[in-house]
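Anyone? Bumping this.
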Amino acid sequence: MRVIVIGGVAGGMSAATRLRRLDESAEIIVLEQSRYVSYANCGLPYFVGGEIEHRAELLLHTPESLGARFRLDVRTQHEALAIDPEARRVEVMDHRSGALVELDYDVVVLALGAAAHPLDAPGIPVHTLRTVDDVDAIDALLPRDGDGSALVVGGGYIGVEAAENLVRRGVPTTLVHRGPHVLAALDPELAVLVEDELRANGVELRTSTEIQSVEEGEVRLSDGARLRPRLIVNASGASPNTGLARAAGLRLGANGGVAVDAQNRTSDSRIYAVGDGVEKIGLDGEDTLVAMAGLANRHGRTAADVIAGRAEHNSPALGTTVVRVFGLTAASLGWSERRLQRAGRPYRVVHTHPMSHAGYFPGAERMALKLMIDPADDAILGAQAVGGAGVDKRIDVLAVAMTGGITASGLARLELAYAPQYGQAKDPINQLGYVADNVRTGTTATVQWHELPALQLNGAAVVDVRSDAERAAGAIPGALGIPLDELRERLDELPDAPVVVYCQVGQRGHTAARLLVQHGVDARNLDGGYRTWSAGRAAEHAAAETMEAR
Amino acid sequence: MRVIVIGGVAGGMSAATRLRRLDESAEIIVLEQSRYVSYANCGLPYFVGGEIEHRAELLLHTPESLGARFRLDVRTQHEALAIDPEARRVEVMDHRSGALVELDYDVVVLALGAAAHPLDAPGIPVHTLRTVDDVDAIDALLPRDGDGSALVVGGGYIGVEAAENLVRRGVPTTLVHRGPHVLAALDPELAVLVEDELRANGVELRTSTEIQSVEEGEVRLSDGARLRPRLIVNASGASPNTGLARAAGLRLGANGGVAVDAQNRTSDSRIYAVGDGVEKIGLDGEDTLVAMAGLANRHGRTAADVIAGRAEHNSPALGTTVVRVFGLTAASLGWSERRLQRAGRPYRVVHTHPMSHAGYFPGAERMALKLMIDPADDAILGAQAVGGAGVDKRIDVLAVAMTGGITASGLARLELAYAPQYGQAKDPINQLGYVADNVRTGTTATVQWHELPALQLNGAAVVDVRSDAERAAGAIPGALGIPLDELRERLDELPDAPVVVYCQVGQRGHTAARLLVQHGVDARNLDGGYRTWSAGRAAEHAAAETMEAR
C-alpha cells in the first residue's frame, strides 16, 4: 500500500507517524511544499517576538529524523500540482530540481491548511505568519534601528499574536480589524477586555477599520489614518486551501472547506483530508470551519486509524480556543451568544468574575467567565473566559463537562481539586453552577447588561448594593445606593417599582435580590454586576465611536 | 423555625449563609467554640510560613459582618455540650461568661470537623494546625534566634504543609511519618517524587517512623534518632469529632464519622451533619472519610437547601485532592492502585510523563501522570499527578471526565484548549487517552515497573531504545541498548525471547513495541518508561531501607 500525505505539518504528520506505528509495511510518502516539515507552527509568532530564542526549537523533526524513526519518505519543496482520482495518481513538482514527477497511490491524505485572504500592497512587503519561511522573511524585515513600524491586518488569533510579538520586539505596531471587536469567538463584553490589554501594552488597535488603498508605500485606512509601515503581516481570515481538492472533483462543504465524514474521508473514498483546510462536523452536525492545531493533529490520527482498518471516528468539534494576549488569557468554546442570536436559538447567559484562587493567598487574579445555557434542558452550549491565571483550566473543565453531558447546574457538584494556590473551596466552576442553578430554579431572576436600558425605560429602579467607596469609583447612572449590609433596615427607601439590584460582580446582588424578593419586592439581579455592565457598555461605545468616525 | 449551626467555619458557615438566602425569616444561630468564625483554615499553614503576611487576611468574616449581611446570630467561644433530640434542645457553654444556656431548636446542623490523634509529649508544647488559635500559638513558639527546631508528626496534607512552612520560616524541621510514604492518596512511585522535593528543600523526612517516647523534652524516634524540638506540630490523622453526635445517639458510619444520607441528614431527621466529621458516600456507595474543604462547603450548602425544602442531594465523593509541596504540585482523585489492590478489584494502569505545555515554549515542566482504569468497561477509576505547572488542571479535567462518564480511551477525543503556553496540540490528557486506547485495543501491551523482575526471571530480554547519552545517565541493569532510530536495522541482535522495550517516558517504547510486534517479535512496552521504573525502584528501596534500620 502506498499512501501519499500532502502537507507535512500538524495533521499530515500526525497521520503519517500514526500510520507507520499501525502499519510497518506501508509505503508512506510525505510531500511538503515549503522547506520544512513538522515545525511548530503555533510557536512561529513567539520566535518573531523573541520569547522562543532559537530558531532550531521550531523545527521538531527533519526529513532525515522522520526517515530513521518512522521510515517516512519525506520530500520537502515538493508541490502536488494535481490529483487524478481515476488513475490514482498525483502530479508533483520537485522545486529543488524542477522535475515533474508522477506518483501512483492507493490512498491520499490531504493536509494543506488554510491561507489568509490575499492582500496586495504596492511598495510594502506583505507576509503571512504561517510557515518558517514567513518567519524568516518577517525577521529579516524588522526595523532594528528603532525606526519604522509594522501593520498587522486581521484581529483573529494569529493577528493578535503577531501584534503582541512585534511590540515585544520593540516595533511600533498598528493592528487593524474589520469587525467591531477582535477575536470573533468572544462576545463583545469579553473581547473589550482583550482590546484594553492590547492598547495598554502599546498596540495601536483600530477596530471596524479596513485598508482602503495603498499607494507608493502609504496605507490609507478607512478611518482616515495614513501609515507608512515597514512591513504588513497579513492575518486576515483563514481560507481553506482547496485548489487541489476542487480540481480533483472533491466535494466542498458549506463554508468552502473540503467536505469529510467523521472518519476524515472525502467524497472520494481513497482520499482523506484533515486540518484547517477541512470542514469539521459541528455540535449540531453542521459544517463548520475550526482552524485549530489540536483538531488537525487529532483528525490526522483518525485518518491513519481508518486507513489502517480501524473503526475510529471524530467527535463533533466544540471549537475550544485559547490565546495569550500579553498578561491575559482569552479562551472560549462552543456557541457564543452572538452565534446563538444569529441562529435564533433560545439560550440563557451567566456572567461571573471569580478569583483564580483563594483571595487570601497571594497571586489570585480575577477573571471574567461567561456561560451559555440551553433553557430547555440546562445543557452547556458554550463558554468564554478572559483573565489571568486559571483561565485555561476553567475552559478545559467546561469543555469536558459539555462533552460529558454535565448540565450547567451540575457544575455546582463537580469535585475539583482545591488548595488555596489552585482554586477556591467553591471553585469558579462550582460558582457558575450555583448561579446557573439559581437562575434555572427561579431562585434569583437575572437581567443582562444589555437589557437594563429597556427595563429602566419601563420604570424599573436600579439599586446599587455596593459600598459607598465602590460606588464613588463608578456606578450605573441613576442608581439608588443602599449597601447590602444596610438593605434590611432601609427597605422603605425603595420606590414602589420593579427593582434591579447590582453589586460589583453579581454575588452580593444575588443575596440582595433574595432578601428583597422575600420581603415582597419584585427584584432581579444584574448578571455579572457592574463589571459586566461596564465592559458591555465600553464595547458598545467603542463600536459606536468607530461607526461615527467612518 | 430556629436552626442551630454548631461549628462556624467551612461547612457550617456555608449552611448558615445559604439558608439565609433561601429563608429570610428563619432564626439562625451559629455556635463556634473558638474565638473566630469563617476563617481561612486552608490558609493557616501559609500564615505560619509567612506567605500570607497579614493575619487579618485569614479572617474572612466577623460575627458582626455576618450579622449585618445575613442576619446570623453568631456566638463565638460557645461550646455545644449536649444535644437532646427528644426535647430538641442544645446545652451550650458560653466560655466568655461561664454561663450555661439551653437553646430549643427545630433543626441542628453539626459541622464539628476532625481532630488529630492525641499526642502527649511531656516538656514540649504540642499544637495542631487547625484553628487561628493554633496558628497564634505556633507563631509565638517559633524560634526567632535561629536556635531550636520543630518536629511535625504525620505526613498527610497538613503535615506536609506544616513542614514546608516551618522550613520557609527558617526553622530546621523534622517530619516523621508512620507509613512508608507521605500523602497516602498517592501510590509509592508518585509519593517518592514529593519526598524528594521535601528533602531537596531541607525537610528532614523520616518515613516508616514513629515517636517511641518523650522524656524531659527529648523525643526518641523508632529509628533511634533523638531530637529536642522547640515545638511539635501534631498532624497525625484526622479523627472525626463525634462526641456530641454519639452522646445524642446519632448513628456513626463504618469509619467512625457521623453517618448521613445524600442530603446530609443524620439518623435523627432534624439533625444534619457536614464536613470532616462526617462519612461521605464514596464512588461505590460505601462510607468514606474525605476531609476536604471543598466537600465541606458544598455539603453545607446541600444541607441548607434540604432544610429549606429543596430536593438537593450530594454526588458520590471522588476524593479529589491537591497540595503544593515547595515547587511541586501533587494531586489525586478516586481510587489509588494500592486501594484497588486491597479491594481485590481488577484494574489497568497507565503512566505518562508529559510536558505541561509545548516543549519548544519556555517554561514547560514535566509531570508524572497515572491513570487507573476499569478493564471491564474502560471507565476511569482514579488518577494521580505530580509535577509543576498544569498538574491541577489535568486532575480537574480527569475529575470531570470521570464524573461525566468519559472512558479512559475517550480522553483521546477531548477537545481541550491549546496554545503553546497552555498545553500541547495533543494535550497530556489526550495522550493518556491514546495510551489507554492502545492498551485496551491490544495495539501495544504494556508491563508495569513492578512486574519487570518476574518477567526477567522468566527469560524476557529488556531492550533500551533510548540514545547512548540517555543510557549512560542511568539504565535498567542487564538491558540491551539499541536506539529506536537504529532498531529496524538491528533486529538480528535481539535474542530469541520475549522482549520488554523501554525509553525515558514510554513514547518511543510504544513506537518500538509496534515496530517489533509487526516484525514478529513478542514485545511489550515498559509503562511510563525509565522514569516510572526508577521512581518505583526508589520507593521500594526507601521502604526497604527504613525497615532495615528499625
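Late reply, but here is one note on the structure posted above: Chain B is about 30% helix and 25% strand.
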